[in-house]
Amino acid sequence: MRLVLVGPPGAGKGTQAEFVASTLSIPKISTGDIFRANVSQGTPLGIEAKRYMDAGGLVPDEVTINMVRGRLAEADAADGFLLDGFPRTVPQAEALDKMLGDEGVALDLVMELVVEFDEVIRRLSGRRNCHGCKKIWHVEFDRPTKDGVCDNCGGDLYQRDDDKPETIAERLRVYERDTAPLVDYYGAQGKLVGIDATGPVEDVTARAMEALRSFGS
Ligand code: AP5
User: Fold this and answer.
1) Is the Cβ–Cβ distance between 81 and 26 less than 8 Å?
2) Residue 87: is the preceding peptide bond cis (ω within 30°)?
3) CA 35 to each of CA 29, 32, 38, 58, 146: distance values in angstroms, whole numbers, following the listed order
4) What's the mean per-residue pLDDT of the chain?
5) Is residue 189 domain-resident?
6) How far, in Å, CA of 102 to CA of 108, rounded?
7) Which of 2, 63, 78, 109 keeps 20 to 30 A from 22, CA to CA?
8) Residue 60 included in any domain
9) Is 86 part of any domain?
10) What is the per-residue pLDDT across 137-193, written as a single tens digit (0 to 9) for each?
11) How many domains does the chain have?
12) SS3 for 191?
């Protein structure tokens, strides 16, 4: 399956993508994760991306589209993938349609995680990420046994630079302006399904899996 997860920052895309992709045995491709890996390795792409990420803005479309084109050309994505955080603008969505169309394939489904901004602010403010295995934690909703230490791998937990209050506010503004129009874009293609992303993680996962089952039947 070729899937996209869309939703505001902190909606739970990364959390859900992990489970859905492994259940379907398809790669999870997160543009945010790829940018962060480049930032920590200090690559030219990372140096460029960091300027935009730290300010809560989007990395320019051309840079992002080229990066995704390269990633989708890798062997593991040939038969399906779950995109988390891409596309994020209408030009990115158009470029993705074209990329896939050139290969004679198309997206199957776009799942929109629907959740109020008040809730995503709580989720982002308390998020902690593992330096080691990258697992996502939350100081209130998904606490590790020992503060600051990942239960999975023992790695240190850290707070993302873009999870500061002023950057969160800008990311939400950018989402409304640049990314929310994708709902209409994919709605018009008949590919959009809304998932209620409130409540416990497992409930959201169950709704996402149900949407996938309904699509398949
Ligand atoms: P990216 O990493 O994609 O960030 P984002 O879209 O802002 O999304 P987040 O990762 O912040 O949130 P999420 O929805 O994955 O939530 P999570 O599962 O972590 O992008 C970062 C930056 O990179 C962008 O700002 C931009 O600069 C750049 N970029 C990336 N893609 C780009 C593109 N296509 N074009 C241009 N620029 C791009 O959950 C959040 C927290 O909530 C966690 O602590 C989790 O434990 C908790 N949680 C999750 N679900 C629940 C639940 N149901 N109940 C309670 N808590 C929950």
Assistant:
1) yes
2) yes
3) 11, 5, 5, 11, 29
4) 96
5) yes
6) 16
7) 63
8) no
9) yes
10) 999 999 999 999 999 999 999 999 899 999 999 999 999 999 999 999 999 999 999
11) 1
12) coil
| pTM, full prediction | 0.95
- pLDDT band at residue 217 under the 50/70/90 scheme: low
* Distance from the alpha carbon of residue 104 to the mean position of ligand 1, in angstroms: 30
- Which residues have any ligand 1 atom within 6 Å of their CB? 7, 9-15, 31-32, 35, 52-53, 57-59, 64, 85-86, 88, 92, 123-124, 127, 136-138, 141-142, 162, 171, 200-201, 204
Residue 38 domain-assigned (yes or no): no
CATH number at residue 206: 3.40.50.300
- Residue-wise pLDDT for 7-32, tens only, equals 999 999 999 999 999 999 999 999 99
Give yes or no for residue 114 having a pLDDT over 80: yes
Q: State the Cα–Cα distance between residues 7 and 151, nearest whole angstrom.
A: 27
160 included as an active-site residue: yes
Catalytic annotation, pick one of 2, 13, 50, 135: 13
- Does pLDDT of 95 surpass 70? yes
